[in-house]
Amino acid sequence: MGTIAYIKNFIKDRQVASITPTSRHTIERICRHINFEKDVRIIEFGPADGVFTKIILERLTPTSEIIALETNTDFAASLSQHHDKRLTVVNRSAEDVMEIASSRNWHRADYILSGIPFSFLKKELKHKILQDSAQLLGDKGFFLAYQNSLHLKPHLNAYFPNVQTEIEYLNIPPMCIFKAGK
Length: 182
Ligand SMILES: C[S@@+](CC[C@H](N)C(=O)[O-])C[C@H]1O[C@@H](n2cnc3c(N)ncnc32)[C@H](O)[C@@H]1O
Prior knowledge:
Elements: H1 3-12, H2 24-31, E1 41-45, H3 53-59, E2 65-69, H4 73-80, E3 87-90, H5 97-103, E4 111-114, H6 123-137, E5 142-147, H7 153-157, E6 162-168, E7 175-181
Parallel strand pairs: 1-2, 1-4, 2-3, 4-5
Antiparallel strand pairs: 5-7, 6-7
Bound molecules: S-adenosylmethionine.
């Protein structure tokens, strides 16, 4: 899958929100914030067909794990074909993260990586996802989000005392990257 799959899914499903995958420059920039030297638990919101997920899996330790939550059925099915025992793909929304994490006995995550279009979400839903994420990340984890606008920043500030913002121009359109933690 690639840009064509994004365009097809974007036409059918507005929540896809993008007609191109995130650029390699953006992915590399976000990866700099992940410690690949130790075992980590990552939750990914909106992996699509795994443009980011597959690169992360190449770098993770053999006993690290990723749970990827993707609402688009075609994308979730496509990523499920990527067999890797460290990856669990769930065709459900980020709003169910708490239930999904605890059903797998995850009471903490080291990173939540999010590409979902927060600006499309209703205020209550946005806040539920951020509140549950902050709880799962505890004092040591980081919420890493990439968005096409700065819309998310004040909402992140409500749950995370430290929010760093970067802009990656080598992305169509330019990408805002947030690293939020306690
Ligand atoms: C902008 S695309 C990003 C895709 C990919 N991670 C990338 O970097 O190119 C957003 C993705 O989030 C998914 N999505 C939207 N809302 C979601 C939600 N509430 N929970 C999980 N996935 C969601 C969409 O189906 C889409 O695959």
